[in-house]
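Give me the fold.
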Amino acid sequence: MRKILALAAIAMLTACGTTSGGGATPAASGGQGFTAPDLPMLDKLGPGEGSVAILAWPGYAEDGANDPKVDWVTPFEKQTGCKATIKTFGTSDEAVTLMKTGEYDTISASGDASLRLIAGGDVAPVNTGLVPNYGDVTAFLKDRPWNSVNGQMYGVPHGWGANLLMYRTDIVKPEPTSWASVFTDAGKYQGKVTAYDSPIYIADAALFLMKTKPDLGIKSPYALDDKQLTAAVDLLKAQKPNVSEYWSDYLKEVQSFKSGNSVIGTTWQVIVNTATAEKAPVKAILPEEGATGWSDTWMVAAKSKHPNCAYQWLNWIVSPEANAQVAEYFGEAPANQKACALTTDKSFCETYHAGDSAYAEKIWYWSTPVPQCLDGRTDVKCTDYAAWTRAWTEIKG
């Protein structure tokens, strides 16, 4: 089981690369100031082409190769006649590069990849009317800034979750309530703070500043002009002397909290569950400022050679049966609420807050920073993901 969770978490670590705000996000229809290429959308389903090339995060398209008991691809093949070939990737940057080869029909895209894929003309708008199970997808995951442009969906939501604040209950007292514990108050835990190792972590600092420094005018942690980015970078530079490690390995974070090398920092629910199961004295909260998080999307290649099988995969992967299996294996809330009745752990959806719109409203889902400000501003140019990547290198030194 631990191996399964490790695969799942490693996938999520990278998968959770970048997306934009939860219910709090302005103009939830998405695509503010963003113009997508004019690409055709499939208008009706035809016969399956017999095969489909799937590009996925590890843990999203399991065919029994990693564990014979974990297989939702083979049933798909038997039902549809579409033989699946699966390629996994380790980062969103790798995923974008692979999609540009034209060799894949569908991809599980995180928010740091989705807008890049749309802008690059690599994925087509999705006709959700051809995906029967789309009707059961949780409403607050639809028509969002990371999976749609001007009301047009570019994929089918898959699963979601929040980046939480985890801490050692025997060391961190009183119980923290704010992200201040890892930013402005990080000195209390000098050399014991842990942070996610990715440029998108800049959004965590921006979210804290958005709530605590209103004079900066931050409206979305993914829409930062030069001044706002500088403020977030300065906050992270001040945090750095207190950081024990920037984590990108699931098991290493668990071990770090068990050993006491890290006592407080960002995490995911699946990591909390594993650390607790291994007797680590930890607890996690969603801080009062809210949190960043992820909502992944299955998208269809603009030049798909097998579009009918690709659409059948989209429908299959968000079916209650498959979505329940993926969610439990990966460690996230399923997009299809009917999946909750089919999880082996009957408290799973409660633990992961599936269908909890009030909880989801507190999450600012990863979105790709682009020059066209995602908060709707048109009088200023925002910093893009390349600028964030350069800034992250500077922060880490």
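The chain has two domains: 2-161+293-358, 163-291+377-396.
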